[in-house]
Each structure stands twice: as structure tokens, then as C-alpha cells.
Amino acid sequence: MSYTNILSETKNGLTTITINRPKKLNALNKETIQELHDAFKAANTDSETKVIIITGSGEKAFVAGADISEFADFDEYNGGKLAAKGQDLLFNYIENLDTPVIAAVNGFALGGGLELAMACHFRIASDNAKMGLPEVSLGVIPGYGGTQRLPQLVGKGRAMEMVMTAGMIDANQALEYGLVNHVTTEEELMPLAEKIAGKIMRNSTVAIKGAIRAINSNFKDGINGYDVEIEEFGNCFGTDDFKEGTTAFLEKRKANFPGK
């Protein structure tokens, strides 16, 4: 599949999706959001893909925000529709994807860019990364899940401060806050992401899918995460991966998971 605004490459079980609008600092417009959805959907249904990494092209930005020119003249109805469609098509879609998604944050991750990174299962950052939700400086609030995911990751007080000041934090502060898992140099960002992906790929894809569902369920209203964990734990016992994993452990050898 060919794209206008992104690149997607699959190699050795890893799909790397790169937002490729460097002249626009990889800003998200409608077309890019649709292409990202299509690329994530294709990777998730590809039996060869075990892990997905998303990053931005160039040295300046992961994603510097949304393309403001597309919605500057919207009214209340169209503004709400924009947020609902974006969340459904991309941000919530990524969060609930079966395949693990790592955000490799290079440079600026602002507004929709930080919201995109937060929708991923976890994040690593280069030491030149800057992150923030500056929407209130434009007279609007984050609309792609930022007011919900940021408090989950950094706590209510820090999220309130970041949103209300519209300020940026650097990579080390993001690490301290728990917003990112690792900080490394710009040159080592993708190698580190690939190294972590390699560790993930050694494990059962079926079990990882269940773990993603169980962990996410704790953050959903009206759902008991413990009940989901019990259900997913039980489901594992009916899989070929469980049989292989336990057999390999008892035979003191490395497991070769079939992914079923």
C-alpha cells in the first residue's frame, strides 16, 4: 500500500511507521490520520508483524501538532465531530490494538503529537524531545484524548499544570514524570526501540494481546479490570502458545511460540 504522508516498512517481524511531513514538522491533518489508521490496521492484520514502532521523519519533530488550518473556522458541531472521528479512527484505535505499539519520540511532540504518543502502549524519547499540550493557548482544549491519558500517565496535578500553562517539558522531565520509559540520544533512539521490540517478539503474541486488553480495561469506566484479567488468564490455557511455553520451560529450552 502506498501513502502520501507516511512511510511503512516491515522487516523481521517489526513494522516501522514514519510520519513523513518534515516541512510541516509532521503535523497531523485529516489525510495523515486516515493513512495512519490504514497503516496500523494493515500491520495489525499482518501475521508477520509482531511489534509496531511509530516515529517522525527528520530531526526536529515526532509530530508538532495538528494542522490548525483545517479546523480554524469550525463551529461547535464540527469541532466535536472532528475530535470524535479522530479518537475513533486513530487514537483509541492504537490504544486498543492487539499488536504492541512503541512511540519513538524524536524532537517536538506537541498537541496531537503528544496525544498520538500517549495512545501508544509506551514511549521512548530522544534527549532533544520536547513534549506538551499547548491547546489552551489557542482557545481550545486537547481533543484527541489528551485530558484523559495524560493524567493516567503523570498524575492529575502534573497534567493540570501542563495543560493549563500550555508549556513544554523536556525528555528528562518526561522520564521523571513517567511519560516516557527511556531517554537516549537521537542516534540511538531507533536502535533502542528495535532492541525493546526484539525482546517483546521473543514472547507469546497471544499472551501479549491478552495482557494489553487486561491492562487497558483498568482505565475503562464500568469495567472491572480484575475480572478481565481472570478471563484473559483463563483464555491463555486454551492456546498453543501456552502449551509450547510451559513445555519449553519444563524441557529447559527456548520456547518457539506458534502465535496461536
TrEMBL record:
Name the Gene Ontology biological process terms.
fatty acid beta-oxidation
- Has the keyword rRNA processing been applied to this entry? no
Q: What terms describe the molecular function in GO for this protein?
A: lyase activity
Q: Which Pfam families match?
A: ECH_1
Q: Does the keyword Lyase apply?
A: yes
Q: Which SUPFAM superfamilies match?
A: ClpP/crotonase (SSF52096)
Instruction: Show the InterPro entries listed in the entry.
Output: ClpP/crotonase-like_dom_sf, Enoyl-CoA_hyd/isom_CS, Enoyl-CoA_hydra/iso
Keyword field: Lyase
- State the similarity comment: Belongs to the enoyl-CoA hydratase/isomerase family.
Can you name this protein?
A: Enoyl-CoA hydratase
Recorded source organism is Bizionia myxarmorum
